[in-house]
Amino acid sequence: MYVAVKGGEKAIDNAHRWLAELRRGDQAVAELELDQIAEQLSLSVARVMAEGSLFDPRLAALAIKQARGDLIEAIFLVRAFRTTLPRFGGTSPVNTGAMICSRRISATFKDIPGGQILGPTFDYTHRLLDFDLAETGQVPAAEQGADDATAKPHVLGLIGREGLMQAEHATSNDDAIPDLTREPLTYPADRAVRLQALARGDEGFILGLGYSTQRGYARNHAFVGELRIGLVEVEMDIPELGFAITIGEIEITECETVNQFQGSKTEPAQFTRGYGLVFGQQERKSIAMALVDRALRWRELGEDYVGAPAQNEEFVLSHCDNIQATGFVEHIKLPHYVDFQSELELIRRIRGEAGIQADLENGHDMKGAAE
Description:
Blueprint: H1 8-24, H2 34-40, H3 42-52, H4 57-66, H5 71-82, E1 100-105, H6 156-160, H7 191-199, H8 203-214, E2 222-238, E3 243-261, E4 270-279, H9 283-295, H10 313-319, H11 322-330, H12 337-370
Antiparallel strand pairs: 1-2, 2-3, 3-4
């Protein structure tokens, strides 16, 4: 018989104490400090901030430490904390054209205004373990060059000036854009809502969908028109002053992909774009986001629906959130004793009825054989 495991509050308290002990690890090893996590695990911090919908490197570092490095658990902690914060206003749209870039590349044009900036990237590393890091952690001294703090124009503006890129129309009223962190997701969702969902969606899920579009599960062969990483100023309108003031700066990654478009009855043949923008240095996520964004635009562009997962708005948006996915997947490990007992009794009854019927049939067969 299935017997419920007992323990109650005392068992839960002991589990919490054990968790805290494992989180701290060997007491002889120096404890991780938040500055170490924020500075040396900055890519993990960026993901937690993006999917937690809160830009605060130190808070994300705390969440990573508390979660023992489980990034989804850390994202859950950040989102939970975010709900406690008062909201005192909204900021103006950031001007990514004024970004001070630490990395800026284009796969569509070799020579671009302002030049390409390779920046910090794993793209050209040998993917070999560097055992020197296990010893000293020292980094080689880099050559000092002049810092270029000038803003770089968007590369796709080059195509736009020729009329070859579909124009993006700004929303006349920013207040009309729903806030996905405060309002439930409804279908059909407009592009602004879809981009919000993708920006805070699980990186692995978005990456898988983006990869699928490149393998033929959507008509979505794309080029990276521009990928840029850098700092942008965040401004806020102050009614008493009558103008906007800068309240800080954040690091973001922005990606614009270029996709061919054959045209329609109302639109000429031209290029269209996919768009991705996330907190911190997250180029893989931003590229994948741009691919999925473009795949989801099939209806507004008058393209055919080919049944690809990345084209299915409800499938993508309903399953990209890792906190919702975690809740549904992990809840099945919690007690379901009553549900299971009912299933157990049902199976026993079915088997019993089938067994009786089999015995009756076997009895008839044996009687016939005896006669």
